[in-house]
């Protein structure tokens, strides 16, 4: 069966090249399976540049088609069979090489080392062997592109979008920092992709505070400010835009139906140690801003776990800014659009690392509970399309040994 190849010309990349992945203390063999071929385009290819109308950008992108650090995407089907290209780009064009994730439909993620200003063939005649021509298959690509190419007898068209949309706002926990495959292993992605029937944006960045102009000695904006910016707080974005990144039109895209906020870890830790009152006031400011922007959205305040302490033979959990977050919830209690999601009781002490970042299993636990909360409280049907947590093997996976 003939499959239309799909190529992308890389501008800049995201993940550190060939980083070691540990599992149960052992080095994972072949942690980044799959490599894309580097080729040169000729007249047999039809090309689309990054600004083509056939490409639908999702998430936060600026006018140069450079994305926010966390999970974002662009989509464009190719033929045959119909294929959707999704671009997820957590870094900046200043990166010259890296490793990227590649996924087709619900198949396992594959990874490829890439270099800037190079063209790679990601879909070949062997990619979808056994898949009927005409099937629509989601192709996800984790890299910044200059364009997409398909054979001359193929074409791209803008894909339809889901009716519902979710926005997740947070720091390193929501962005999946230190999980096996970063954002792809994080609870925010596992939850949003696991819904199976919603558009989503993950506006999260490691180290960002909720408090504005109070962290890291002052002079550093927090999420209430960055929520209106197309670029994240990272050093790569600052190197490109300085302290004046492009504004992002939060009203310009599809309105969110559900907004989930989990913040407080960076406000609480040294050197910041933001007071409860400052945290409370900036949280209220952010909730007010979101409600003004999307008046029909349900806003969920997710509690932020802290460290576990050993008392006798019992590990006791803690919650950061518990009273202040409940105060924010109480502030809007008479309104039905603000809810509280309690994470206490979901994780155990061995579900997090020493800096409170979840293990892969911890991320799965949070996402699973949140999916069921959404099904019950929002009355949303769940339509998962398959595996979303790649590379997680649960022992024992053998029926005899």
From TrEMBL:
Check the record and name the CDD domains matching this protein: Endoglucanase_E_like (cd01831)
Keywords, sorted A to Z = Signal
Which residues does UniProt assign to the signal peptide? 1-19
Indicate whether Glycoprotein appears among the record's keywords.
no
For this protein, the record's Gene3D superfamilies field holds:
SGNH hydrolase (3.40.50.1110)
Gene Ontology terms for molecular function: carboxylic ester hydrolase activity
Question: Which residues are in the SGNH hydrolase-type esterase domain?
Answer: 169-363
The name this protein carries in UniProt is SGNH hydrolase-type esterase domain-containing protein
Q: Which organism is it from?
A: Aspergillus terreus (strain NIH 2624 / FGSC A1156)
């Amino acid at each position: 069966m003939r499959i239309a190849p799909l190529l992308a010309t890389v501008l800049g990349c995201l993940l550190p090249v060939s980083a070691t992945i540990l599992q149960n203390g052992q080095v994972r063999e072949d942690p980044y399976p799959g490599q894309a071929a580097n080729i040169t385009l000729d007249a047999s290819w039809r090309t689309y540049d990054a600004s083509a109308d056939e490409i639908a950008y999702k998430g936060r992108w600026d006018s140069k088609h450079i994305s926010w650090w966390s999970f974002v995407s662009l989509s464009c089907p190719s033929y045959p069979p119909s294929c959707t290209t999704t671009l997820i780009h957590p870094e900046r064009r200043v990166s010259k090489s890296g490793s990227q994730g590649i996924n087709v439909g619900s198949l396992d993620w594959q990874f490829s080392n890439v270099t800037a200003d190079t063209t790679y063939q990601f879909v070949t005649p062997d990619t979808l062997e056994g898949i009927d021509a005409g099937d629509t298959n989601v192709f996800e690509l984790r890299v910044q592109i200059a364009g997409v190419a398909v054979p001359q007898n193929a074409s791209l068209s803008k894909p339809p979008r889901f009716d519902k949309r979710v926005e997740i706002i947070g720091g390193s926990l929501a962005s999946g920092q230190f999980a096996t495959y970063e954002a792809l292993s994080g609870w925010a992605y596992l939850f949003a992709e696991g819904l199976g029937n919603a558009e989503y944006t993950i506006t999260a960045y490691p180290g960002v505070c909720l408090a504005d102009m109070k962290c890291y000695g002052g002079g550093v904006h927090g999420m209430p400010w960055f929520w209106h910016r197309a670029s994240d707080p990272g050093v790569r974005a600052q190197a490109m835009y300085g302290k004046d990144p492009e504004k992002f039109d939060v009203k310009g895209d599809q309105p969110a139906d559900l907004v989930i906020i989990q913040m407080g870890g960076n406000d609480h830790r040294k050197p910041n140690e933001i007071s409860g009152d400052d945290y409370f006031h900036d949280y209220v400011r952010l909730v007010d801003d979101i409600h003004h922007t999307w008046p029909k959205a349900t806003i969920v305040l997710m509690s932020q776990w802290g460290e576990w302490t050993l008392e006798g033979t019992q590990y006791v959990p803690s919650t950061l800014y518990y009273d202040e977050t409940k105060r924010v919830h109480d502030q809007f209690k008479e309104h039905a659009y603000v809810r509280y999601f309690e994470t206490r009781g979901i994780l155990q002490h061995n579900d997090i690392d020493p800096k409170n970042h979840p293990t892969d299993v911890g991320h799965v636990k949070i996402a699973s509970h949140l999916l069921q909360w959404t099904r019950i409280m929002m009355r949303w049907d769940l339509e998962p399309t398959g595996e979303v947590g790649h590379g997680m093997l649960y022992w024992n996976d053998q029926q005899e040994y």
